[in-house]
Amino acid sequence: MSVTVLVGAQWGDEGKGKVSCYLARHADLVARFSGGNNAGHTVVIEGKEFKLQLIPSGVFYPDKLVLLGSGMVIDPAGLLDEMEKLQKGGHPCANVRISALAHLVLPYHREIDKIQEQSRGKFSLGTTQKGVGPAYSDKSERIGIRVGDLLDEKRFLERLQFNVEVKKNRFQGLNGHVDVKAIAGSYQEYAKRLKPLIVDTSKLIHDAIAKGKSVLCEGAQGMMLDLDFGTYPYVTSSVTTAGGVTTGLGIPPAAVTDVYAIVKAYTTRVGQGVFPTEDTGSIGQFLQEKGHEFGTVTGRVRRCGWMDGMVLNYGKLINGYTGLVITKLDVLSGLDEVKICEAYRAGGETLTDFPIDSAVFQNSAPVYRTFPGWKEDISNARKMSDLPKTCRAYLSFIEEYTKVPIKYVSVGADRDAMIAA
Ligand code: GDP
Ligand code: IMO
Ligand code: MG
To answer: What is the rounded distance in angstroms from the CA atom of residue 81 to the CA atom of residue 98?
Structure first.
């Protein structure tokens, strides 16, 4: 029996989808525990690219169950669209199941997301505008509508009418944008199509654990976007940390056997918020161009900079990483030198513990350790000994600094461009 959790160790887009797809081969069940279609997980299988937003990467293996857990917020139109695209690409999606307890994203959530972003002015967050924040707000306010409600037409309509009244009173800009009848009609249509997939996903997981099977939990977003432990308020609205498997899938904490940090070999961030190692000069540009760092969901250019060890060690405390998966190492090839931030300087002091005070974090400047780079193309490396010595020295330092072993190194977008350490 194993329960392995994959956590994005930075600000998202670390390559979770690729790693999940690679590891899913050895799992019986793959589940997502949080977020919605604000996520964009790109998977490349034998040169064919798939962009997943809600469905975990296990979908490519028809013999594994793939679950959309109760901690998620689900836009049914987005989900059906994603399923259609996968089906056209030869993946039937017959193995997908959705938690009846997950919350629905409704069309007005997307409108509210836009209205809120506009009204925040200089405090805007740079959200993906997928309505994810407003859907989670409804959940906390206990007026949300859940996936299971789709199965009872009367109950769904009652809740929708009530919810829309609340929203119209609160958001003047919403009037005229919400047509209850049209929403009810389209959601009943979605209900018909999704009904066979709506189940108690926790039970499926508990049964799998009881039978000694392997469960892989695919995180969304990243540690630093976590609602509690991330760079609040520049975060997403869900639990992105390893604890999300208990709150978002119903997995008892003691059942978790491994927590893997998915770590990009450099750092990227989309949206607003402090990012100490951001490089707005030539290095940032190199990483952005070579790493094709554009947001999957919004097409925005991702901000880029060196790896931040402070963030990794902070994430280790919160998530209890048992292993690291380093991704996009191939992108660093060609640089004369590579750097890792090993401390911050703030207020005349050197910090080696992550500052949870946002004012201190805001003024933190990175202290770098510099390593010689490597020029070789490493994308065909399939064992550690294939990597240049300088590259291995960089990896060894990451292990030494975090005191967490590297389990895998990804050297290309394709599912199988991976080194098992
Ligand atoms: P996720 O949100 O964590 O799943 O990451 P994204 O899919 O948003 O972004 C990662 C991007 O890098 C995708 O386009 C992947 O296809 C690509 N990718 C993943 N691993 C590697 C790698 O090791 N090397 C390269 N060059 N690209 C990778
Ligand atoms: P994956 O799973 C990167 C960011 C947004 C914004 C903030 C809040 O692909 O790693 P939201 O729409 O969630 O309210 O936006 O969070 N964000 C992500 N950044 N990768 C993601 O997911 C993200 N999901 C949300 O850019 O800064
Ligand atoms: Mg992504």
So the answer is: 15
Q: Which CATH superfamily is domain 263-420 in?
A: Adenylosuccinate Synthetase, subunit A, domain 3 (3.90.170.10)
Residue 163, pLDDT above cutoff 90: yes
pLDDT range class, residue 175, cuts 50, 70, 90: confident
Ligand 3 centre to CA of 402 (Å) is 24
* Residue 11 pLDDT > 90: yes
Mean pLDDT, the chain, whole residue set: 97
User: How remote is the CA of residue 330 from the centroid of ligand 1, in Å?
Assistant: 11
Q: Does domain 2-99+198-258 have CATH number 3.40.440.10?
A: yes
Query: Hey, where are the domains in the chain?
Result: 2-99+198-258, 103-194, 263-420
Q: What is the pLDDT of residue 70?
A: 98
CATH number of 103-194: 1.10.300.10
- Which of ligand 2's atoms lies nearest the C-alpha of 298? 26
* 16 ligand 1 Cβ < 6 A: yes
Considering the chain, what percentage of its residues have pLDDT values greater than 70?
Answer: 100
Report the C-alpha gap between 140 and 164 in whole angstroms: 16
Identify which ligand lies nearest to the alpha carbon of 270: 2
Q: Is the CB of 58 under 6 A from ligand 1?
A: no
Q: In what order do the strands lie in the sheet with 198-199?
A: 198-199, 96-99, 65-68, 29-32, 214-218, 2-8, 258-264, 323-327, 406-410, 418-420
Using CB distances shorter than 6 Å, the residues near ligand 2 are 8, 12-13, 38-41, 125-128, 130, 132-133, 220-222, 225, 236-237, 270-271
Q: Which atom of ligand 2 is nearest to the CA of 270?
A: 26
Residues 287-337: tens digit of each pLDDT: 999 999 998 888 899 999 999 999 999 999 999 999 999 999 999 999 999
Tell me the C-alpha distance between 211 and 215, whole Å: 11
Cα distance between residue 77 and residue 375, in whole Å: 46
